[in-house]
Amino acid sequence: MTLTPEREANHAADSPDRPIGFGRIQRKEDPRFVRGRGNYVDDIVLPGMLHGAILRSPLAHARLVSIDTSEALAHPKVVAVITGKDLEALNLAWAPTLSADVQAVLATDKVRFQGQEVAFVVAEDRYAARDALELIEVEYEALPPVIDARRALDPDAAVIRDELPGRTDNHIFDWEAGDAAETDAVFARADVVVDQEIIYPRVHPAPMETCGAVADFEPVEGKLTLYETSQAPHAHRTLFAMVAGIPEHKIRVVSPDIGGGFGNKVGIYPGYILAVVGSIVTGRPVKWVEDRSENLMSTSFARDYIMQGQIAATADGRILGLRTNVLADHGAFNATAQPTKYPAGFFHIFTGSYDLEAAHCTVTGVYTNKAPGGVAYACSFRVTEAVYLVERLVDMLAQRLDMDPAELRLKNFIQPEQFPYKNKTGWEYDSGNYEPALRKALDMVGYDELRAEQAEKRARGELMGIGISFFTETVGAGPRKHMDIVGLGMADGAELRIHPTGKAVVRISVQSQGQGHETTFAQIVAEELGIPPEDIDVVHGDTDQTPFGLGTYGSRSTPVSGGAVALVSRKIRDKARLIAAAMLETRPEDLEWEKGRWFVKGDPSAAKTMAEIAMGAHGTITLPDGVDGNLDAEVTYDPPNLTFPFGAYICVVDIDPGTARVKVRRFVAVDDCGTRINPMIIEGQLHGGLADGVGMALMEIIEFDDEGNCLGGSLMDYLIPTAMEVPTWESGHTVTPSPHHPIGAKGVGESATVGSPPAIVNAVVDALAPFNVAHMDMPCTPARVWAAMQGRATPPI
Amino acid sequence: MNINDTDVTGEAEPRVLLVHYLRENLGMTGTHWGCDTTNCGACVVLMDGEPVKSCTVLAAMADGHSIRTVEGLETNGRLDPVQQGFMAEHGLQCGFCTPGMMLTARALLDKNPAPDDGEIREAISGQICRCTGYTTIVRSIQWAAEHPEPDGFGVESGYDGEFANDVDIRDIPETAANVTAAGDGADGVTSEEDTKP
């Protein structure tokens, strides 16, 4: 068996001269995980701990007539049963969401989606808690559900949120970006306009570990410790202080090891609040861990955008403008996670990688009788939807103009000298060099040969498709002036301490869910200070131990927290210079830095290493005025802009003409996220996102029947790719650093999830060209592809 | 039952699932629980050498059988080659599916010491990973096939005068690419000088 270049490079990660800083090194997290010694929420056992379970609504929309908990309370192992009425007395029946709405913790007046929380049982063990759920009698009075977002604003649609004073409809918000009049003018003079409804169906992040919490309220001190599957422990702490009225210094939120997040674990779910209430009520720790069906039915969904998109161009393929009107299905409560001023997230990045004359979008959000959510599943705040829209429309335009889709893109790219580039909806792209990335992907995949192969196969009746996606991401929210979550500015802190022996601990405000922060953040410090990564401990997730910040989502860790860690390292370096000068009895300006040591200019032998300086700082030498006797520093980094990584993806599919089954034969992904901290980890991030793309494009959907029954509520129905459905990924990269970022690095974690679905769907539609298919909506399951081949509307499932 | 070469005697309600018995009665939390429909395989353990989903086995059914969990992969301070392979090839990220994946890999390699890509993919097709996209898991299992003996890793638990941890893996093929501080070789379009903002 021969080693692939990637595998060879991974082995190099652990050569004796492996990099002190950026480069491939193996993960510091792995030794505990491969031994089964990770510490996930459900692994936590506290003395006297009880188990909670949630009774959920079987109906999508119904008035709550009565709840009888007497039988459940009589169960010998049941300690407490909590209902909405109990929470009302504590003013906790409703909790604020991340979108300035409220959501029911336990239903009081009505249930508004199937799977909604109705009662909470606390029992001695996990099994007894589930038993007791069956002993609760609930009487419902069914109401007409609102399921189709297109009907949500009909005058006769049932009003879902009738508890809100004065509310008479299901309208949440209208939002727009760009210039409508300019865009209309551009469309009026275009030679070609392509107009297509493009649906990004509801899907779910479905992390392997579901959501859960262990709440431990200590009544004497009045201190709450909450172990949670939280991607944003600090924001959770503040929200709990606001919601539960517990003083913030008496709340400690701990995110232990998290079994994947993918945006599913950003918000606060009723289960977390119920675990806290359960602990306060019983005086004992309470664990709540949802099962998979609860996770799929009640926690944050993703997407669910119905987009009417239009692209305007000249006859020779110059793209002039884009416009779109979006109907956004937000479910029963608007709990979408996004910066306050952006109800549709960063959807207005839908102008993509192209230099346009005008663009305009409107987004209307509506309530339906479904679970809340919307922003999740590596979407970078709706960039998935934006990229999918533009990359489908560009492909449809290529088809209409009979132009090669690669040529059409090359013709319209923003050029490298145009950066920083202001797009028509208000973004300023930091840097990009798009053509080399696309050319590299075309070379890697052997584009011309593939087109020749396709022509041959087509002549024989075989269905082969080649799909391109070129995307620009926007990640790293964000500048405090513009971006906050529930009023908390999106800056991130970092603290770095160098111990007397030269070992270090860096405390960060973001929270890994597998992205390798414990390794890569140590590498940033290593790169800046020359301390080996294995000598640097990365602390995250415990709000008592780490500086305040907004957490990990939106690929923001490297752009924001990575910036903070680089800057705090430089603060240490500057201080180390003053101390080294005192030790060497010279002036600081006479010293020069070489990774790991300060030395006297012109005399490299007169030097002090970081370890010597650390001992000096903590020792007895006379320190300069104003220099404290330590080697510690802290920084809060407010980024000046987001980062705009990009990528060129090419997918090759084969479709069985007899069964309409789509097989992804090859997938080439060229990504550019600027400076690369750890190429091995980047590659892994991208691979995972590419698999998400195969899932969404071909398999995954959360659908509802007319009654509002969730049809995707288990892994029997919600299909996630296994090793059999995905190819061996082929990765490449270019490097275009972010000019405003301290180390030139951009985020990358969500790039592949954002960029890959359009590449796959473009390939499917390309394969179906003999059947004159211009567009089909995801997921491209055999049944739906078959229907498209027959010229029929897609089947309901 | 016998778990990881130790006889275990205990009592469990007939309905208790093996996954919960391992995690809650025995405190062996390396085995995970990721779904409720026996699809995900995060709970895979070896029962008499065969991979089983311990969420779909009653604890009572394991009576008299031998069970191997992730906690039993490391023996005498030596990691199993699949554990080394997953670290060497970045076959894990969040780590939640890893124990089950590694146990399936162990059972596969015990039967078929040199599986090809397709055989590996089929063997792990009853298990879901949300992080890796599987390519690196396949590589990890190939790595373990190529290194059947836990050789040259010197993985000890504990302190031996010099702190040893597995980040010190050294298995360097002679052809290893040079690693520079700026990245991973010369296939990028931009030169490394350009990576400094």
Automatic annotation (TrEMBL), chain B:
Disordered: region residues: 176-197
Q: Which UniProt keywords apply?
A: 2Fe-2S, Iron, Iron-sulfur, Metal-binding, Oxidoreductase
Q: Name one GO molecular function term.
A: 2 iron, 2 sulfur cluster binding
Acyltransferase among keywords: no
Entries under SUPFAM superfamilies matching the protein:
2Fe-2S ferredoxin-like, CO dehydrogenase ISP C-domain like
A Pfam family hit:
Fer2_2
- Where the record annotates domain 2Fe-2S ferredoxin-type, the positions are 1-73
InterPro entries, A to Z: 2Fe-2S-bd (IPR002888), 2Fe-2S-bd_dom_sf (IPR036884), 2Fe-2S_ferredoxin-like_sf (IPR036010), 2Fe-2S_ferredoxin-type (IPR001041), Beta-grasp_dom_sf (IPR012675), Diverse_Oxidoreductases (IPR051452)
Which PROSITE patterns would you find in this protein's record? 2FE2S_FER_2
Protein known as: (2Fe-2S)-binding protein
- Organism of provenance: Arthrobacter jiangjiafuii
Organism classification: Bacteria, Bacillati, Actinomycetota, Actinomycetes, Micrococcales
